[in-house]
């Protein structure tokens, strides 16, 4: 039976390769998602606002929003595979599951599979691209979903941030650790683990060492597809190119796509965040 893949806007893929439901960007009580989406080609204004003190927050889509987006697909007689933002970081997958239960009562002949990708940003995007390739090869709904489950913990996410205050604000660092880290110029290197959480990998003294650690990670994690890597930045192309060149020095045949870190992740990690995503060994391995 034919099926359609659905995704959400945390995946940082532009243009979107599949129907996409928006995460919400809030400024105080105001939902400014549409305004932010209008910046899609240039997030400089968004991140510049953060630099000057604007505090954005995010909110997950509701079950009702999933129902509205998925209903036309089901009415076409198509099944659905939804590849959602990590449940350890958002309740988006939970909203999707509530919507699925409601819709299956109305469309009992249809199938809806929800995959918790345990991924974020372009790591989620990278998984989506591999899964779309699987679908295009002629795989069934169940085969495609099983493939997504089989590779999701091989999608490595390695990143660092420019300003520790954003990790402090989002609860990833204590205020004391953030203060000392800033004074000592400590750069945390973070990753996602097998439960989809953001966790520390190591910490470095200064950005030069942080760049080396990020660039060495795909070598240590045995990048299985160096022709398909994504390097994302939050409005810091100079830093992005330094990481790009460092990776290319170590993996000369790599093909690295450069992309923006979108506002969903960026509002929590801050401007200057840099992240590398690739298919490699299991992401719970310790280096």
Detailed description of the structure:
By secondary structure, this protein is an alpha/beta fold. The protein has 2 domains: 150 residues, Rossmann fold; 126 residues, Hypothetical Protein Tm841, Chain: A,domain 3 (2-Layer Sandwich). The strands form 3 sheets. The protein has a 6-stranded mixed sheet, sandwiched between helices. A 4-stranded parallel sheet has the order 2-1-6-7, sandwiched between helices. Strands 4-3-5 form a 3-stranded antiparallel sheet. Helix 3 packs across helix 4. The chain is globular. About 3% of the residues have low confidence.
Features:
287 residues, alpha/beta, Rossmann fold, Hypothetical Protein Tm841, Chain: A,domain 3, four-stranded parallel β-sheet, 41% helix
Q: Tell me the CATH architecture of the largest domain.
A: 3-Layer(aba) Sandwich
CATH topology of the largest domain: Rossmann fold
Shape: globular
Mean pLDDT: 91
Helical fraction: 40-55%
Number of domains: 2
Distance from first to last alpha carbon: 43 Å
Task: Count the beta strands.
Answer: 13
Q: Report strand %.
A: 15-25%
The total of helices stands at 11
